[in-house]
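Example noted here:
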Amino acid sequence: MKDEDRPVLLLTCSGISHTGQLTTLAGRFIRSMYPALLSRHLVLTGLTRSLEEELDGDERLVVVDGCDQCCARKRVLLAGKVMDGHLVATAEGIAKRGMEEPRFDEIQKLSHVIMRIVKNDGHISHRVPPGQDHE
């Protein structure tokens, strides 16, 4: 199976702040509008099994963090897994606004960036080996 044919697992940080909640909503938006695009969407803060167990398959892994703390990326690297793509919402021009509700235009903007990465035609897509930090 070619790498681009592997199913895609989207992992979002889903923290309690504006940008964390935005990652969750963008993932849900993609799953509802384009259900065939992702095999699964995992919410880091809502896992029922360990992250290591969840990432045990042969899916391509796209990780979305809300801010530069990169909680989801750190957890993935700690688990020794390889990310096929990673992005940070604030690096895409989304401003952190504390505990405000994410706006629909922000959900759409982040969703489009995620879809570019998932479809392998976005400039952000890259493989991140375990233990390697790109900050």
